Amino acid sequence: MKRKIYKFGGSSVGNPDTIKKVIEIVSGSLNNNENIVVVFSAFQTITNLLISTGELASVGNEEYKLAFSQIKNIHLTAIEKLTDGDILRKTRTKVFKLIDDLEKLIYGISLIKELSPRSRDHLMSYGERFSCTIIAGAFNNSGVEAEFLDSRKVVKTDDNFGNARVNFVLTNNLIREYFDNAKKLQVVCGFIGSTADNETTTLGRGGSDYTASIFGAALEAKEIQIWTDVDGVLTADPKKVKKALPIQKMSYEEALEMSHFGAKVIYPPTIRPALIKSIPIIIKNTFNPSFVGTEITTAAFASDYAITGISTIENVALIKIQGTGLVDVANIAGRIFKIIAKESINVILISQASSGHSICFTVLETQSSKAVALIQEELKYELNEGFISGVEADKEVSIVAVVGENIRNMSGVSEKIFQALGRNGIEISAIAQGSSRLNISFVIKRKDESKALNAIHDNFFLSDYKAINVFMVGTGSLGRTFIQQLKNQSKYLYDELNLDIKIVGIANTRKMHFDNDGINIENWENELNIKGKESNTENFFELLKQSNLPNSVFVDCTSSEIIIDKYLDLLSSAVSIVTPNKKANTSRYDYYLQLKKAVKKYNVSFFYESNVGAGLPIISTIQDFVYSGDKILQIEGVLSGTLSYLFNNLSKERTFSQIIKDAHEKGFTEVDPREDLNGIDIARKLLILVREAGYKLELEDIIIENLVPSTLINGISKEEFFNRLSELDDLYEQKRIEAEKETKVLRYIAKYEGGKASVVLEAVDSNHPLYSLSSNDNKIAFKTVYYNERPVIMRGPGAGVKVTSGGILADIVRIANNFY
Predict the structure, then answer these.
(1) Backbone φ, ψ for residue 599 (5° rounding)
(2) Residue 429 main-chain phi, psi, to 5 deg
(3) What is the arrangement of strands in the sheet containing 756-764, beginning at the earlier edge strand?
């Protein structure tokens, strides 16, 4: 019967309880008549503790004794909890022998004050020797006959300490000979081997996985199972992409690409021995053993996804060599990479412009300064003569690799990747794609790594669901209504439109709070008050930018001029904006143009449909006219729901002051109704429409009739204004009567025609398009070149937080459609 190799990592043997889970898993397989070999890593944290102990001892720091005591206590405690009786005594005796040997080794290091690579390997080997001795005892204690196998006996390597190369011919023969006589379950030390002179070596990063693959290949195993603490290889690092998904099947090539670019579940050396013998590698979760995990085999599997996964390498630097004369320098690439290779500097990615005027490559950041110095020395003549303008290292960058068999079979994958990056303002410094076309790699700023991963991951693996991250300022009546509407509508948006809209940042004048996983909108007010920090405008926007989340939208539910000053900075940071705040679009014309240019430059959205007409699609209608080549000749409208309500209800029975107070109670007015009555708000709305129609206009160019005299504005409070509001009743009753005599009605009309703009109170007859109005309706009429004889008319509620917040939510949905 072919054997299976099980390997359990440090997280799987982190403490006695997890070791018991491992014993249950292995025992279950043995009970199913599986023929198993088990490879173990050191207990969790032990390898790092051993290194720390040796380093402290090598510099004469007496604290090494405390670290050594910690190592000793961890293992003795494990023996007590995993064994008893005679097995406990025998296991303890073996472990005490190892402890004694380790103590002598560390003491020797402290005497000579040197930790050589040879000594370091010997020191680190104790982690696996401790764990496997104890675990073998635990198996026997549970009724499973097991014995400890010190892999140094059978895994033979060269003397490249720290990353030894395996002598496979000798190793394979020794493993086969050993297992010809092995009857019990073998508990094998991962990570370690020995030279021909029996000096201890280690196999480098991922060495225990490599050990499992070495044994699997030597024994021609049925499969190699790598047991860890995740549900297999995931589509991305779950620490950076919380929605990462398990990959059920992948090819060796895909696994190699993923592992090369930082996927820590599987390491490149592990794959090679298995690949040569075509042995499947299964990645399983110790803490979720029933889950199928990931199967890695020779075959490429049909997948619904265009890519298999996304990996990254952090802590790299991009070395750039450029100059107009570079193309004339013979064998430049050969010279560069020869000197780099000579100093054992590993080149991870290479990219060269087709013009030949620049070449760049990535190395580990720790080696970048040395790489630059070597190249400058090698090319000093070319630098002096000006053939090369410079050699520099761009640090603080990361490599992102998008991997998948389908990349070479499906069209449009590259386009989809770079669209996701572009929409989120992520700049690319270098791009490379191998001849296998299995991998598209690119270099970006390290601060954008998480944002890039999530943007690409959502685009490929969660394309059915569009994730939008909302930051909002303002929790007054409008902000509260928006949150309530989002709460009420979120299930519909998710189920029907596949939209996952999360509020991840919120602020008012007192508190601000951030949660990248999403603030609970069922309990947002408590979260803000309890978890929130003191509100600070500068800090809020700095934290917003630092969050650097993909598909970010800022919602401004204020009327603050301080907030609009941040709009350009937000747009340049790839944050889209939705705002009912009219002050941005009605500030100086040059600032309005800057906002428009920023939208194009940074490929973001700036939506403000609720600036005019609350939820009515007035602005988008004007934009459609312009896009189609039409030209707007006249704009005429009642653009205030408050004043529409006022003059629709003004009658002999209801006075001016009564209606204003009623409208204020209904939430139709601004907090201070004088902001409606002075006409400035309506003038701002008209200004926005005129500018959207393509005309240059400033606020001071508009003639505005203030409905309230200065005596009720200057120097009095809102409360006193309400007390004195009845002073205007006779004036407006007289205006109403005069209009009624002529069979007309009063309308506060915003108008633009022939370069002239005004906001004034007029009496209009039944032939006028604004004659017929009711309640708090807005109504607007456009005359255009195409619609000249009869105007285009739009009508609907123009005031109230519900329709305004509905406009905000509609704008966010429009942005979501632009993102995806």
Answers:
(1) -60, -45
(2) -95, -30
(3) 702-704, 756-764, 745-753, 632-638, 777-784, 792-797
| Buried/exposed 187-213: b ≥16 CB within 10 Å, e otherwise | bbbbbbbbbeeebbbbbeebbbbbbbb
Q: Which pLDDT value is given to residue 1?
A: 76
The residue with greater pLDDT, 671 or 111, is: 111
At 671, is the pLDDT very low, low, confident or very high (cuts 50, 70, 90)? confident
CA distances from 534 to 274, 521, 530, 537 (A): 57, 20, 11, 10
What is the 3-state secondary structure of 39-89?
EECCCCCHHHHHHHHHHHHHCCCCCHHHHHHHHHHHHHHHHHHHCCHHHHH
CA angle 219, 225, 226 (to 5 degrees): 120
How many beta carbons lie within 10 A of that of residue 144, not counting itself? Answer: 18
Contact (Cβ atoms closer than 8 angstroms) between residue 552 and residue 575: yes
pLDDT at 820 over 70: no
Task: Return the structure tokens found at 165.
Answer: 């190369």
Amino acid sitting at position 227 = W
CB atoms within 10 A of CB 753: 13
pLDDT of residue 798: 67
Three-state secondary structure of 89-125:
HHHHHHHHHHHHHHHHHHHHHHHHCCCCHHHHHHHHH
Tokens of 8: 């359990």
8 Å CB contact between 170 and 195: no
* Distance separating alpha carbons of residues 694 and 692, to the nearest angstrom: 5
Q: Mean pLDDT lowest for which of 30-44, 47-61, 462-476?
A: 462-476
Whether 300 shows a pLDDT value over 80: the answer reads no
d(CA 360, CA 321): 6
List the end-to-end C-alpha distance of the chain, in Å, as a whole number.
52
Half-sphere exposure of 90 (CA within 13 A, CB side): 13
Neighbours of 426 (CB within 10 A): 23
Tokens linked to 634: 């006249």
Q: 792 pLDDT exceeds 80? A: yes
Distance CA 203, CA 352 (A): 34
Q: How far is CA 161 from the centre of its chain?
A: 39
Q: What is the pLDDT of residues 65-100, one digit of tens each?
A: 999 999 999 999 999 999 999 999 999 999 999 999
For residues 91 and 134, the answer to whether their CB atoms sit within 8 Å is yes
Contact call for residues 478 and 507 (beta carbons, < 8 A): no
Closest CA to 421 of 396, 440, 395: 440
531 close to 517: Cβ distance less than 8 angstroms: no
Query: Tell me, what amino acid is at 508?
Result: N
Say how many C-beta atoms besides its own lie within 10 A of residue 491's C-beta: 9
What pLDDT is recorded for position 239? 87
Mean pLDDT of 491-517: 94
Is 685 annotated in the active site?
yes
Predicted pLDDT at 746: 96
Of residues 7, 284, 466, 685, which has the active-site annotation?
A: 685
Q: pLDDT value at position 803? A: 85
Using the structure block, give the residue that is written with the tokens 């204004």. Answer: 721
For helices 46-58 and 64-82, the axis angle rounded to 10 degrees is: 150
